Amino acid sequence: MSETLRFGSSSGQPTTRRDGIAKVTGAATFAADNHPDGLLYAVYVPATIARGTVTHLDVTAAKAHPGVVEVLTPDNCPPLPGGPDTKPFRFSFSFEALQDNTVRYANQPIALVLGETFEAATEGAKLLNPQYNALQPRLGLDGTTPFPTNGDGFGKPGTTVHGDPDAGHAAALQAVDVTYETPAQYHNAMETHAIVADWDGDHVTLDLPNQAIVMSCAAYAHHLGIPAENVTIRSPYLGGGFGSKVIINGPQMLAIMAARMTGRPVKLMLRRDQMFGPTGHRGATRQRLRIGIGADHRMTVLDHDSRATTSSFETFVESAANASQGLYASGALRSTHQGVRIDSGTPGPMRAPGEATGSAALECAMDEMAFEAGIDPLEFRLKNYAEREPGTDKPYSSKALRQCYAQGAERFGWAGRPLAPRQMKDADGLLVGWGMGTALFAAPMFAAQARAVLRPDGTGLVETAASDMGQGAWTALAQIAADSLGLPLDRIEFRSGSSDLPDAGVAGGSAHTASAGGALHAAGTDAIRHLADIATKDPASPLFGTGNAGVIARAGRLHASDDDSRSESFADIIARAGGAEVEGKGNVSRSPEAAEAHAMYSHGAVFAEVKVDPDLFQMRVTRLVGAFAAGRIINPRLAESQLMGGMIWGTSFALHEEAKFDARSGRIMNADFAGYHIPVNADVQGLEVITVHEDDPYVNALGIKGVGEIGITGTVGAIGNAIWHATGTRVRRFPIRIQDLLAGS
Amino acid sequence: MSYPISLTVNGLRRDVTLEDARVTLLDLLRERLALPGTKKGCDRGQCGACTVLIDGRRINSCLTLAVTLDGAEVITIEGLANGDMLHPVQAAFVEQDGFQCGYCTPGQIMSAVGLIAEGHAGTDPERIREGMSGNLCRCAAYHGITRAVSDATRRMAEDKTKASA
């Protein structure tokens, strides 16, 4: 395998985005930018109750409006061959496609209006004037009796115990027992869920932002009752995904059904307020953390219980308590989960699902324990540093967390921080606080496939159905492919983002570069192997007799590895062999043996400075320094952007985001960007990212971990801890609000 | 009832007969004039993804009814580059990685062009951040956006000095 680890000059370079010019000129085509002839516009009608039934829709009034073409309701909606409650793939959740008149949450689709124009469809949707039989919605973390979960939606168990937690509690000399709450949050990618569905006979083409392109074809096909090859998904660009564009939802399915029913292409774009319902979210959590320590400040127990909301009809829960597995050495470890069924849409994976909520509570609880023990929070973490994975005792595939702590603390200037809160002020009299948190995110890898072709003109073509939702797949994957083929970046063509290409797996779990990149690298290596085979067996080649392993590819030529002067260009080798393209295939996944042998994670340390007005309690994050070790970094420019984006999501979690439910109707009261706050540019200052070098020979052939999600973890806790350090008020619910500090003052 | 209007979009005169008074400039551009570069993010003036220039001023095209624009001059993201030559703001966004998914980017760039023309912010990062805060970016590429606007402001000032020298 050593030959595949050879890397050329593209990887590691801070190349600007290959799709950059398209994106700054408006030429990048997002799903809703497509406009096939004969297009109909669809608007879905959202339920304004959270539980009950629809008793009447004024279809006559809607149909009478000029330009309204059709109205889909449960009365005339065609049946879905593969029912909406069936589960064709691992990311399947029940959805609503007008198969009955039940309402299970606010903003669920209850009708779909088709118009010749967007304006007509919008007006028609208003005219339906739905009437309901409404029942009292069940909401919040105490909305129903909690149930023990068997799993978290990703197949992890609901309960994990290592050692004897009760003995750990008994042995503790000091302890904290604290409960933290986190709210419901909604992904809100800037591009709302959009689709253009266009049928041709029994084949449908979907312009659809999608994080699992090939897999989703099979799932749509199942529901629609057609073969998988009859579904084409085109998803060259996603306007953000964050986990929400991997799940099939009712409104998009209805657009496909409407296009089939009318025989015309249909465009649907969710309104911003409709993004608070059928497209997933992060459920609310209430987490109890009990930590005990001995005389040496080493943890005797880390006991983490999480209650999280889910819908009335699904089982997905935030696996928040699992954030306490894998990070700190402790005599005993316990993670338990419960679910609470409420009348909301089904939660789902949202950037760092489980890790973000769990880390927020864990890192604050660690801070509370350190203060109780009278030691520096960083020192406390170092005393409980895990050299092997706690519980399983597996070695880490790599773990440069010590260096992250050291480099982050150094850059931030952590040394000399007073232990007690409310000790620091700036020149303007603002309270200053410093906090830190550890960042942790697993480094999974999914099955992925790719194809590479060396063309007679010496250029390369590489193909895989990757998804670029902003992380930079168009660029980083091309860099990997170029190196595998021994070609400069500008001499390869990269085809991606369409379901007629090899399956690149899921763009999720921070694993896409490792997975799709691994497949591309394997394909390129395979193509070079075939080319070397041709050259070394050809007496006319200067490489004749060198043997496959004795050849390396560089800058469009094969060289003898022990004699650089013996070389031949790809084009010459192919020409003499008759001019046929040379093809390579890649098919990668992590073997169960490799997964079993090592614990695999990205790590990091985040340090935050906040300033708080002593009278008004307005809060500002003034500095945020993150140091991360995430294996091989393919493109430092893009990796830095990903990590910064994650850290700003952490800021958002700590201080901004919260969906608020109206107790009577069950509707979300702040379902727009005026009420559901996310950071704006003015909220972001003093942001720094350090990437700590890390070689990982086990995680995958390329040594790649992931950078997409880890930035949120650690950051939420760091900010919460800094607010406490500035004010002396410990707020145990997120987001931290001015009134929480006022109440504590 | 129909509403004939005549406006200039990216330097081209467009005579449009609107069949519907409810059409916003954003939907006119995207659905009727084949200019989908301008993006819809919220359709109610809260995110800035639909920012274009009208008579040199940055506005939210989702809040502007097309029928009110008879005689207006509109510039969208498609009209910013000079052939293959990127506008300095566009080039700076690529260089400084001022975007990730790219969906809010047309609005960010048009807003930045408007901000620079307003002349209030200069290269002061704090003023740039404030002046760009009407344009949301969920990927949170704000660090790169601020650097890009600052760099472009500097370069445009230098180009102006050179041109007048």
In short:
The complex is a heterodimer of chains A (about 750) and B (about 160). Chain A has about 750 residues and is an alpha+beta fold.
Q: Give the spatial strand order of the biggest sheet of chain A.
A: 3-5-1-13-10-11-12
Q: Per CATH, what is the topology of the largest domain in chain A?
A: Aldehyde Oxidoreductase, domain 4
β-strand number of chain A: 28
Please tell me what the overall shape of chain A is: globular
CATH architectural grouping of the largest domain in chain A: 2-Layer Sandwich
The percentage helix of chain A is: 10-25%
- The H-level CATH homologous superfamily of the largest domain in chain A, spelled out, is Aldehyde oxidase/xanthine dehydrogenase, molybdopterin binding domain
Write the element-wise H/E pattern of chain B from the N-terminal end onward. EEHEEEHHHH
Number of domains of chain B: 2
CATH top level label of the largest domain in chain B: Alpha Beta
Instruction: List unreliable stretches of 5+ residues of chain B.
Output: none
Largest sheet of chain A: 7 strands, mixed
- Helix proportion of chain B: 25-40%
> Strand content of the residues of chain B, in percent?
15-25%
Overall radius of gyration of chain B: 16 Å
Radius of gyration of chain A: 27 Å
Kindly identify the CATH topology of the largest domain in chain B. Ubiquitin-like (UB roll)
Quaternary status: heterodimer
Spans of chain A of at least 5 consecutive residues whose pLDDT stays below 50 are 1-6
GO molecular function (chain A): iron ion binding; oxidoreductase activity
Domain Aldehyde oxidase/xanthine dehydrogenase a/b hammerhead (chain A): 25-136
InterPro entries (chain A): Ald_Oxase/Xan_DH_a/b, Ald_Oxase/Xan_DH_a/b_sf, Ald_Oxase/xanthine_DH-like, AldOxase/xan_DH_MoCoBD1, AldOxase/xan_DH_MoCoBD2, AldOxase/xan_DH_Mopterin-bd_sf
Protein name (chain A): Dehydrogenase
Descriptive report:
Chain A: This is Dehydrogenase. Chain A: GO terms for molecular function: iron ion binding; oxidoreductase activity. Chain A: Residues 25-136 form the Aldehyde oxidase/xanthine dehydrogenase a/b hammerhead domain. Chain A is an alpha+beta fold and 745 residues long. Helix content of chain A is 25%, strand content 24%. The longest helix of chain A has 25 residues, at 512-536. Mean pLDDT of chain A is 96; it is low at 1-6. Chain B is of the alpha+beta class. Chain B folds into 2 domains: 3-79, Ubiquitin-like (UB roll); 88-164, Orthogonal Bundle (DNA polymerase, domain 1), CATH 1.10.150. Chain B contains 5 helices and 5 strands. Chain B has helices at 25-32, 88-95, 105-118, 125-131, 142-164, and strands spanning 3-9, 12-18, 51-54, 57-60, 73-75. A 5-stranded mixed beta sheet of chain B has the order 2-1-5-3-4, with helices on one face. The model of chain B has no long low-confidence stretch (mean pLDDT 97). Chains A and B meet through helix 1, helix 3 and helix 14 of A and helix 1, helix 2, helix 3, helix 4 and helix 5 of B.
